[in-house]
């Protein structure tokens, strides 16, 4: 599980870039990885996606998350309702997903999947 962070993926901090390399190695051996907010952004960056400041500015609050079909059938997420509320705050998002992501099981409704919860295999 890769959680949120006060750091920004676009800062390219040494520890963050090392974590991105570890994520690439983990993906190469098909280790399931769960990323939330910063973790989602770092996964996307590690796999070739584009991360940057959210086009509509900072998002803050309790917002609705919608499970996509892949998430609803995933054994790690199947106990969640199809739609649920989550608290979040972030300034950056995944602007362009990586090529051929393995799984994008949840998304923010009516946004650019800015703070998606992702399991990539």
TrEMBL record:
Keywords: Glutamine amidotransferase, Transferase. Residues 2-91 form the Glutamine amidotransferase domain. GO terms for cellular component: cytosol. PANTHER family: GLUTAMINE AMIDOTRANSFERASE YLR126C-RELATED. PROSITE patterns: GATASE_TYPE_1 (PS51273). This is Glutamine amidotransferase. GO terms for molecular function: transferase activity. Pfam families: GATase (PF00117). It comes from Serratia rubidaea (Serratia marinorubra). InterPro entries: ChyE-like, Class_I_gatase-like, GATASE.
């Amino acid at each position: 599980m890769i959680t949120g962070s006060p750091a920004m993926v676009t800062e390219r901090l040494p520890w963050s870039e090392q974590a991105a390399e570890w994520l690439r190695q983990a993906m190469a051996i098909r280790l399931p990885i769960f990323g939330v907010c910063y973790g989602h952004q770092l996964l996307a960056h590690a796999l070739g996606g584009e991360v940057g400041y959210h086009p509509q500015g900072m998002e803050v609050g309790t917002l609705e998350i919608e499970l996509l079909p892949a998430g609803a059938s995933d054994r790690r997420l199947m106990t969640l309702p199809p739609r649920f509320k989550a608290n979040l705050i972030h300034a950056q998002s995944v602007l362009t997903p990586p090529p051929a992501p393995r799984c994008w099981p949840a998304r923010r409704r009516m946004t650019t999947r800015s703070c998606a919860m992702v399991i990539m295999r």
